[in-house]
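WARN no homologs supplied; continuing
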Amino acid sequence: MKEKNKFLSKTPYRIKRYYGYVIATIIALTLPFITIGSHHMFLLSFDKKQLHLLGTAFDMQELYLMPFLLMLLFLGIFAATSLGGRAWCGWACPQTIFRVIFRDLIESKLLGLKRIKNKQKEPDWSKATNASKKVIAIIIWSCLSLLVASNFMWYFIPPEDFFNYISNPSEHMFLIGIVLTIAGFLIYDVVMLKEDFCIYVCPYSRVQSVLYDDDTYQAIYSTNRGGEIYNGDKEKIIFKAKDLPNPNNECTTCESCVTVCPTHIDIRKGLQLECINCLECVDACTTVMGKLGKPSLVQWSSTNAIKKDIPTKMIRKSTIMYAVALLLVVALLFVMGSKKEYMLLNINKTTQLYSIKEGNVVRNNFVLLFQNTEDKPLTYELEVVGNKDIEIKRFKPFTLNPGKLVKKVMVLETNKVLVNDLTKDTPLKVTLRAYAIEDPKRVSVLRQAVFIYPRADKLK
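OK structure emitted
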């Protein structure tokens, strides 16, 4: 019985990436439809002026959470880069997924225009069959682009509202225009711009060199085993295996790692900003060297492991710093999120500081702005907390519909001598509690108002 080749029996990274793409696509398509109660898992609604996060709705005035979410995103990407290079680019980036769908699935698998293992060779476009297949490929991708554009909009417009809007296109031409614009850009990007987007447009490739160190996992060619194909000036000096100076050098110069590269680079040249860590070159070299009974010359490893024969350290100064920063941001996110208020109330004083009525009754007028951030009508009441000398004289409970705002006038009044000061008016802090009668424990907020008490000589 033939012995199984341990090098060729491994699942290629390309297939593992495809599994990752399927999972990422399912998450992206289904996440906008997942709701907890009446709120979405994630939604940044400009229409309703709300941020939905993990089933909790935050109003626009509560968007202090957004900086923490952005910090979490960027710190997460930087930490992933420090550990696994541009793993995001090769394994989860929408741009890469779109290109794989168009190039590998539609053009290669479905229409047979290209070979997955040779991404450098373009078909003969002078042939009518190839040209017609290209048109078919663009049509298929155009339909998918409309789905992708719609999926993108579902994170800003709830899907239930989105489908309702597009069912009346004449009344929502702006939305239709945005979807068509995004779809048009995706067609241009994937069909014409291709991997040039990763190389010239995306800023991420420009910062990777700052985030890499000798323990960062990346697609790396072993010059110790394969030999130096390029000199110190990055000029190619070896074109055939016979040109290798050391007979023990194992590179066959088959160029399989070059022809399979989607960004058209030679991994044997060393670290390059064009590399997206898709690991196609690792698979290609594994196939060639595996047939010779040897491990791949291109590995998913670190500079220390391949070139210095030093074990890769996953736990090191940079990863510890990123872990601490991420934990700190997550903790702050939960702390700030836990302080969510289930109604909004702003208190503003009127231009008149105070008025003095008969019997030395002092009044202060305020304008209150209420907003119901819940998804049901609520009736709001107001009370003074911890001060029996000041009373609310002009305010009645009222009902407010979901998402609505309303201004109300409130008058605070006292007939007691609160301060005996002949030199100046005295500002006094008053704590007010506003709450919903239907749910006074949960829907309740405390606010500070400043009550101005006049100097003593103004009182009779």
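The first helix runs from residue 13 to 30.
OK
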